Amino acid sequence: MGKIRILLIEDNRLLREGMVAMINGQADMKVVAASGGNENTVLKARTVRPQVILIDLGLRNQNGLRVVASLRKATPALKVIGMGLIPTQSDIVECVQAGASGFILKDATVEDFLRTIRSVAHGGKVLPPLLTGSLFSHVIEYALKKGKDKLNRAVRMTKREREIIALIAEGLSNKEIAQRLNIATYTAKSHIHNIMEKLALHTRLQVAMHANR
After folding, report:
1. Alpha-carbon separation of residue 55 from 79, 133, 176, 207 (angstroms)
2. What is the CATH number of the domain that holds 60?
3. Cβ atoms 33, 7 nearer than 8 A
4. How far from 210 is each of 49, 55, 90, 200, 206, CA to CA, in Å?
5. pLDDT in tens, the chain (213 residues)
6. pTM for this one?
7. What is the secondary structure of the chain as a DSSP string?
8. Which range of residues forms the domain containing residue 96?
9. 21 and 110, same domain (yes or no)
10. Most exposed of 19, 95, 122, 191 (fewest Cβ within 10 Å)?
């Protein structure tokens, strides 16, 4: 069996060169081209014919998600893996909707990074390890099987959850949120837990940052 052919799109030169060296050090992988994202990625993919594309979703000069969608439309057989630092609900939902087969955290271990590439190359769908077992991971897996319309319905926030997100962004504590909404403190805490699960976030600060975005 030949090596997994990979096209890497990453605009951080140091990170790009390090990833190329790491991937090319594997017996079963080869980076056929690496780019900073300043060129026509679809044309590049057609020229070098990779099996897998690794693309930074935070490209400075291009909309990473738009590139993913264009790649999947132009070359349906191509496998795409998005990369990012802190995946929020919108990051991963939009990545899946655009047609990506996987998502890698930039602070993932080398083992997880390489395992994701191999799995996607062989037809797998891979989420970040931190999401494994969460409600949101099951929602995404369901969406991969059933389509993006059902995904949109599955992750929709309730009116109460939207209210609580706004109050978290204001810096209110669980007790203060409960008092503002005239609900029990444990009920507010339960809503916050559900919100974090849906958004695949782990702290109130991350929820607040999501709200501000």
Report:
1. 11, 25, 42, 25
2. 3.40.50.2300
3. yes
4. 37, 22, 9, 11, 6
5. 689 999 999 888 888 999 999 999 999 999 999 988 777 888 888 889 999 999 988 777 667 778 888 888 888 888 999 888 765 656 676 777 778 888 888 878 888 899 999 999 998 888 765 555 554 555 555 555 555 444 444 456 788 888 998 898 888 888 999 999 999 888 888 888 888 877 767 777 777 777 766
6. 0.62
7. -PPEEEEEE-S-HHHHHHHHHHHHTSTTEEEEEEE-S-S-HHHHHHHH--SEEEEETT-SSS-HHHHHHHHHHH-TT-EEEEEESS--HHHHHHHHHHT-SEEEETT--HHHHHHHHHHHHTT--B--GGGTTSHHHHHHHHHHHH-HHHHHHHTPPPHHHHHHHHHHHTT--HHHHHHHHT--HHHHHHHHHHHHHHHT--SHHHHHHHHH-
8. 4-131
9. yes
10. 122
Q: Rounded to an integer, what distance in angstroms lies between the CA atom of residue 112 and that of residue 141?
A: 18
Q: What angle do CA 104, 110, 115 make, to 5 degrees?
A: 65
Helix pair 89-98, 135-146: axis angle to 10 deg: 20
Residue 148 lies in a domain: no
User: 54 - beta bridge partners?
Assistant: 8, 81
